[in-house]
Amino acid sequence: MKTIVFAGGCFWGVEEYFNLLKGVTFTKVGYANGNVISPTYEQVCTSATGHYEAVYVEYDDCVISLEKLLDAYWEIVDPTALNRQGPDIGSQYSTGIFYTNEDDRKVIEESKERQQVKYRAPIVTAIEPLKCFFNGEEYHQKYLKKNPKGYCHIPLDKYKN
User: Fold this and answer.
1) Are 106 and 97 in contact (CB under 8 A)?
2) Any idea where the Peptide methionine sulphoxide reductase MsrA domain is (predicted)?
3) CB 3.0-4.6 Å disulfide test: which of 63, 77, 97, 144 passes with 16?
4) Which of 47, 62, 67 is nearest to 4 (CA)?
5) Which residues of the chain have pLDDT under 70?
6) Residue 121 in contact with residue 14, Cβ under 8 Å?
7) Model's pTM, two decimal places?
8) Residue environment code for 73-89, b if the CB has 16+ CB neighbours within 10 A, otherwise e
9) What CATH number does residue 102 fall under?
10) Structurally, how many domains does the chain consist of?
């Protein structure tokens, strides 16, 4: 199994989306790459912790490649939007790809370059090694499974596999 962390706005919908992909074996939501140890949701929402709302993804690379995961990710984000996704505003909603294996960086950078030709504005998605990940509160985990009519900034047609 391999791992990667994606930030793409509110983590509820991002987690649900990745859970629908064949080859994704486990996900959890949390807070990535900030400067506060074990932040709470309320702290992250102040935009003062430096953390991204993010989704930790474990996947079987014999079933789904990193390239395919990245293609799926780019489908659900506006990588040119800084400190927001959809109606959600704040630095915690910025986009980011946080790798756990240095060998993945080249694949991620090449994927970003392929995406950039689709946009006039520069892609501002952070691409960094994963420095830290703190699990989100239990009520956030699998939120849209627990709350099928819950809020999601990702258009529903993106959930069709």
Assistant:
1) no
2) 3-153
3) 144
4) 67
5) 156, 159-161
6) no
7) 0.96
8) bbebbbbbbeebbbeee
9) 3.30.1060.10
10) 1
